């Protein structure tokens, strides 16, 4: 719950509550509780069950809750319930809990709708609950039924007042959405005990049962009967859902789907979802031309911010001071330079987050005042997180300056340990022996074994140089050598010490450790002399200390830079990004409700009004056009199409010629003898009757079987050959 003292107080208060209930007396102690009030069948029990995530309360028509039920929720690893009147008996099946509530109610009030003010105390232990105390109260009624007394209304009011008049009782006033809010019994009685609305939360149930075309948006936007803490919309399970064994988890998923799909309720939820998708980069519409908000913030963390760090620590200038003091002074100077890029990273993220917020409010452009108010509230909240992030980042830098931790596991220091082989101390090169070597800032020692008890030798590193070497001809190991450039013996009668390792990586690591300790590769003698001539005589001891400080400072700054690069993004995510996401999902609506007149926020822009009027005109025009088209369609007499023409009649058409034209004999078909035309009669052939100024009529296709025979052919006309 966030308040540790309250978390410790609630179990104590629950025990006091049980003690009062055990003697059958109401508690006069002002205990922190949440009381659920409302009329009969308003959905109070459903709201209460959502707190637990289980079905355990009696259901039915009429008055079902006839005794107050004090429900004490306790977080636990397993899920079970316990009644005060059944002390020690665990109820694992919540259907048995329901039956026990009904049985205990009947034992006190009878089975014919009687009521009692003696509460039933129930404890529920579950991993899915918060440490809360809730009270389910009988629904307000006016007409007595069954064994109820004539003054049932006053008795229930008196029972409710026993709980909701206490200043520490939060009132959940439950009202169904499909009834007039002005007639809400829950809001009326809550107003009597809490006229300022400080501890009243309105709960609107049954949103899915409202008449089609209506919604409770104005109620949820706190514009009808305003409450300081606003209203919460709830979609309850129907009786069919309960009979179908639909559990609470599925009901919550259906409720979420309802709010996200309903045009009147999804605006703020859509903004919250769009913002989260923009940050996470999980949206459906991905811009391929530029990076999204989340990707840009990621780029700031991992590209821009490291670049700014490198710019500020590039190049370390050392002076010839005492080594320890010089190291600390140089490191602190470089650490302080990290402050500016760290703060700049916070600024860049906040700037990009502001752009994301503005982009996510684009879908509510048609309500410009609402859009501006949402942007203002969310950006202001982000600015608060920005200030906290900057303070935290500066604190990180101050912490790094407060203590220079040279014992950090990643700090190179001076030391190195490991097995190496001395390959030039035998009778001939290639005969070697392995020792345990330890390198410090001042010396190189080697021992017989890792326990470092028997030291073989210790070699001072003053005026020692490093060079590459070759292992023996019989060895495959990599090697290097240390020597004295003054040609003095380095070890016994040897001017150099050749060391070999298992592989080149081991040798490279050792060479790097020697470099950090101030042992450097050999240089050209003429180059050294020329350099000495320019700057004077170099003190080898001083030169080694200066180079050592440079390497150590570089190593430590890398550690600090790595730490800052890791902590700054985490700080920004905690104080700004995640905080804004949580604020949008949980507190934005409350801030919008408390910001003044919600009617002004929901005023449409002039462009939207013009657009809607234009769409309405277009709608009515199209509707009128459709009506005209429908009338034309209704008044038109349609006839069936003629049957398709058989291609066999094409010969008949070809054989017919108008009067006065020259007839050509038909072309004989392959495989068929040409018909012999009959002799032309002496009288002229009569012309085909036709209407004036019209084309000759086309012969009709032969009738199908069963229809009247066609008229006889015109006399004197040659017979038309039939199609095979």
Automatic annotation (TrEMBL):
Gene3D superfamilies: Dynamin, middle domain, P-loop containing nucleotide triphosphate hydrolases, Pleckstrin-homology domain (PH domain)/Phosphotyrosine-binding domain (PTB). Residues 546-637 form the GED domain. One of its GO terms (cellular component) is presynapse. It comes from the Eukaryota. It is an enzyme of class 3 (hydrolase). Pfam families: Dynamin_M, Dynamin_N, GED, PH. One of its GO terms (biological process) is receptor internalization. PROSITE patterns: G_DYNAMIN_1, G_DYNAMIN_2, GED, PH_DOMAIN. This is dynamin GTPase. It comes from Pocillopora damicornis (Cauliflower coral).
